[in-house]
Specification:
The protein has nine helices and 18 strands. It is an alpha/beta fold and about 375 residues long. Strands 1, 2, 5, 6, 15, 16, 17 and 18 form an eight-stranded mixed sheet that branches. A six-stranded mixed sheet has the order 8-9-11-12-14-13, covered by helices on one side. It starts with 5 loop residues before the first helix and ends in a 14-residue tail after the last helix.
């Protein structure tokens, strides 16, 4: 049985558009991680003084075993009932009390499920979402280090909205992956050295939708990195592996409301594991899916909703949490810890305590039965 993480104990049919490959994606600037929650940091250096009231910085000295911790969470919106989270002030953070768990990790990655714009006409789809560039600052202040925009809502407001989102990426206080001015940029990894461990983060979307067809990045076309072009993504992962022993692939994938991975997910996970990915994780289904080991690669098929704008018409859609992996400098997964949470009536992920936390851990473990994965090493 995995332990409850310390923070819990404390708080307890469209035509397919041809896509170009990544054209030998260039790496994002490498960096050496000095502190987290750094207001003046550029993604290239990752160093500055923490903002007042921001989560405390992680120590920068290497651990005796040379390992790091990497935290993952699911889909985030600053829309509807969560729009006001952009206005919260210290010591509270936009992501609420679970920000502590995110901040305690050496690296934290999640998905921002919106365009970043105030312009543009909505795309012809049922749901469209947008937010302000303030969202990136709010996520940084909540302890998030890398944001994926490779999802089916990143280009919800057309060419104008995409231009603004790309501009927000350029001026972002934290790295943004999975979206670019061309395929080379969209597939490019963010590379950083943390405690002497070199890590690359890649993102892409496998969701077959309007965004992945109309707004897929090409050789001279802006948009999202597509996992539907599996050879392009595999190539990007192989190139990231040549730069860093630890490669994280954050995907938008799965079928909404389904708690078991699809054949498309399992097939892609195997390809990425073969390409050298240390961890292949993601979101989209609005419910949690199972996690575990595929050989030496950690796979998390679905982290569920996290900071969520409204209700979902799926069972267990309010179940969420933070998954934290311990990784060695060679890219070996040595421990997994899960901090269970529940999306409350305000859309905020609230850590669970006591018996509900234990039940959440047991339910999460049960989700592995349909994945073909083996249990990850347990955290201590």
């Amino acid at each position: 049985m995995r332990r409850v993480a310390p923070a819990v104990a404390l708080l307890i049919g469209l035509t397919t558009v041809a896509a170009c490959g990544p054209d030998d994606p260039a790496p994002a600037p490498a960096a050496d991680r000095a502190t987290r929650a750094a207001p003046a940091a550029s993604p290239a250096t990752g160093s500055a003084d923490p903002a007042p009231g921001a989560p405390s910085a992680s120590p920068t000295v290497p651990r005796p075993d040379g390992s790091i911790t990497v935290a993952f969470a699911g889909d985030v919106h600053f829309e509807g009932r969560t729009a006001g989270r952009l206005a919260v002030t210290a010591p509270e953070q936009a992501l609420g009390p679970i920000s502590r768990t995110i901040s305690e990790a050496d690296l934290a990655v999640l998905n921002l499920e919106t365009a970043i714009t105030e312009r543009g006409a909505p795309e012809p789809k049922l749901y469209t979402f947008r937010t302000s560039p303030k969202a990136l600052t709010a996520l940084r202040d909540s302890g998030v280090d890398v944001v994926s925009l490779a999802n089916n809502h990143a280009v919800d407001f057309g060419a104008d909205g995409l231009a603004d989102t790309l501009a927000a990426k350029e001026s972002s206080p934290i790295p943004v992956v999975g979206l670019g001015r061309n395929a080379k940029e969209a597939y490019a990894p963010y590379v950083i050295t943390i405690r002497g461990v070199k890590v690359a983060v890649v993102a892409a979307s496998q969701v077959e939708d309007l965004t992945n067809q109309k707004w897929r990045a090409g050789s001279n076309k802006p948009g999202i990195a597509s996992a539907l072009d599996a050879p392009a993504l595999v190539k990007a992962v192989e190139q990231a592996k040549a730069q860093a022993p630890v490669v994280i692939v954050y995907l938008h994938w799965g079928e909404e409301g389904k708690a078991c991975p699809t054949a498309a997910q399992t097939g892609l996970a195997k390809k990425l594991a073969t390409a050298g990915a240390t961890a292949v994780v993601g979101t989209h289904a609005h419910t949690m899916l199972g996690s575990g080991m595929l050989g030496n690669t950690y796979v998390g098929y679905g982290f569920g909703n996290f900071l969520w704008y409204g209700t979902s018409d799926y069972a267990n859609s309010n179940e969420t949490g933070v998954t934290t992996l311990t990784l060695t400098a060679a890219g070996k997964v040595t421990a997994e810890t899960f901090t269970p949470a529940l999306v409350d009536d305000h859309g905020v992920p609230t850590p669970r305590t006591g018996a509900p936390a234990t039940a959440a851990l047991q339910r999460r473990d049960s989700l592995r039965t349909c994945t073909g994965l083996t249990p990850a090493p347990a955290g201590h």
